[in-house]
Amino acid sequence: MAAYETTRTAPFGAISTYRFVQFVSNLFAAVADWNDARVTRNALGKLSDRELDDIGLCRGDIDQIGSKLSH
Questions:
Q1: Which positions fall inside the YjiS-like domain (predicted)?
Q2: Residue 48 has what DSSP assignment?
């Protein structure tokens, strides 16, 4: 049985390209997280105090929940 050495260096620019793609991917993920938090805050803000109390929240909790979702 023969063994071959298969390790090669990355082609020129591959690391930079990978980092750029990763940066863009992280940017899109951050925007999606921000939007999810925004939608959640808006939905909770539309609930009445009674409905918020039914799910164990008060008006002051809405901003905290939104900030936890965006991190």
A1: 27-63
A2: -
State pLDDT tens for residues 12-61.
Answer: 788 899 999 999 999 999 999 999 989 999 999 999 999 999 999 999 88
Task: Determine the residue type at 7.
Answer: T
Helices (H), 1-71: 14-45, 49-54, 61-69
The ranges assigned to domains in the chain are: 14-66
d(CA 59, CA 45): 8
Alpha-carbon distance 68 to 66, whole Å? 5
